[in-house]
Amino acid sequence: MSLIASDLPRILGELRHDGTAVVTAPNGRTVHVDGTGNLDVTRQHVMQALTSLTVEAGLSEALAELDDPEVVGKTYLHVTTAADGQVRAELVSPPVPVPAPATPTVAAAPVHAAAPTEPAHNPGWRPRPEQEVPAGQPADAVAAAPRDPFERSFLTPSRSIERRPAQTGWRGAANKLGLRLAPTEDELSLRRAVRTVSQHWPGVRRVAVANGKGSAGKSPTAIMLSAVYARYGAGGVALIDNNPTRGTVGWRTEQGPHDATVLDLLPQIDTLMQASASHADLAGYLHHQPEDRFDVLRSKPDKLGAPFTADELDAVVQVLTRFYRLQVFDSGNDESASVWQRMIDLSTSLVVPTLARREWAETGRVMLNELRHRDEHGAALVSNAVVIVTNADAHKSADDVRAIADQFAGLVRGVATIPFDAGMVEGHLRWEGLQPRTRDAWVRAAALVADGF
Predict the structure, then answer these.
(1) What are phi and psi of 446, to 5 degrees?
(2) Total domain count for the chain?
(3) Which burial class, exposed, middle or buried, applies to 307 when counting CB atoms under 10 A from its CB (0-12, 13-18, 19+)?
(4) What is the CATH number of the domain that holds 221?
(5) Domain stop point among 92, 118, 135
(6) Are both 206 and 88 inside the same structural domain?
(7) Domain end point (choices 57, 92, 127)
(8) Torsions phi, psi of 262, nearest 5?
(9) What is the pLDDT of residue 36?
(10) 79 with 202, same domain?
(11) How does the average pLDDT of the chain come out, rounded?
């Protein structure tokens, strides 16, 4: 980004977490912006306000100083008006004071920079011909190039993730005005996470979401992971409420045109395992989520039902494996239950949800410790496990969440954090019902889990 002097007329923009903003021109004219809770939409409206205020004030150029709740420090844009009336905006570095006129001095003898030399610690070093990097080409690309010219392909690996211009943040907002700014590293990492969760892996994957303490965030975590994998990976995801009595997944997801649960499915296992059975035959037993594209197998939500057994869970999973590439288990709180233990045996990945509260985190830690001593499979699950720390309290800070996450960091393969979002607290959980930054956090968390698939 280029540097710019600080004496230009300034347009001030202040964004707020709720998606509103205020833009103030040098003449005091103020524009209020409402992005309906979406900060990216707000940024686009702010960019439009910047251009209109610049034209209205008759400014050939101005400096926009923007406060953004998702950006550390201020963002600066150099706004210019061309002769044809087109307004352009360029991201610039923080402005520097205009220097005072310098006092004439006697010029010193010029100092010429020495030509680049080889490393001082190895005076005899010279690059071999195959190490020489053509101008403008990454060194790692040359190092990986085959030495045999017949092995050098005319096709180059796709770099579409890196080459697409920025779509979010201030860069994305500026690009909608005709610029072509590259994405930030944060946007690139989110794009990579999206690509990860969009994959179809060979073989069935089963994810156990487990924490022995109630209200630790198991059901919301299982629901949101299922939504990410189904929305980005085009379906094929089943969420299994592995609670033998009263699970809550059915209360937090949409009900289909029936009230069937796992207890209704069990008598039909033999029929559904026949070669003539199809995916459509399951529609009367699973509850499809039209918006989020996954299916839910409910437990009995309204009264105590006859508990299903570990062998029956085996049979259910066998049926679902015929039609679903990815299965996510929500679980009950009784780690000694036979269906809980069998879930662990059947799972290929383990996710431990916890709220940003020490009692819930401690229960997760104890469970991990017991699982790693349970058997070889349990130890493998723990070494590949991911902990997801959700902030369910509006008054807790990011530091509170990070303190819990940091203590888990040395125990498992990865830790993800989810910010507070009122849409997560109660009621039906819907992907579109969450704030954009919460959705991004869930994509990153799901990608972290999928890295272990």
Answers:
(1) -65, -35
(2) 2
(3) middle
(4) 3.40.50.300
(5) 92
(6) no
(7) 92
(8) -60, -30
(9) 77
(10) no
(11) 85
What sign results for the dihedral spanned by CA atoms 142, 148, 151, 152? positive
Token readout for 63 is: 């400096």
Name residue, tokens 């990608």.
447
Joined tokens for residue 253: 């997801």
Give residue 265's region: left, alpha or beta (phi > 0; psi -120 to 50): alpha
What's the confidence (pLDDT) of residue 112?
46
Report if residue 1 sits inside a domain: no
Whole-prediction pTM: 0.75
Cα gap 172→351, rounded to integer Å: 33
Asked whether residue 299 is assigned to any structural domain, the reply reads yes
For residue 431, being part of any structural domain is answered with yes
Is residue 58, in this structure, part of any structural domain at all?
Answer: yes
Could you report the per-residue pLDDT of 284-343, keeping only the tens digit for each? 999 999 999 999 999 876 655 566 799 999 999 999 999 999 999 999 898 999 999 999
d(CA 22, CA 189): 30
Inform me whether the pLDDT recorded for 117 exceeds 50: no
Q: Which residues contact 309 (CB under 8 A, 6 or more apart)?
A: 338, 339
More confident residue, 421 or 39: 421
Task: Supply the pLDDT for residue 175.
Answer: 79
- Check if the beta carbon of residue 152 is closer than 8 Å to that of residue 145: yes
């001082």: which residue's tokens? 120
pLDDT recorded at residue 136: 46
- Chain position carrying tokens 């300034």: 10
Spatial contact of 175 and 44, defined as CB atoms under 8 Å apart: no
For the four alpha carbons of 326, 361, 344 and 286, in that order, the dihedral sign comes to: negative
In terms of residue numbers, what domain contains 22?
A: 10-92
Indicate the residue type of 145.
A
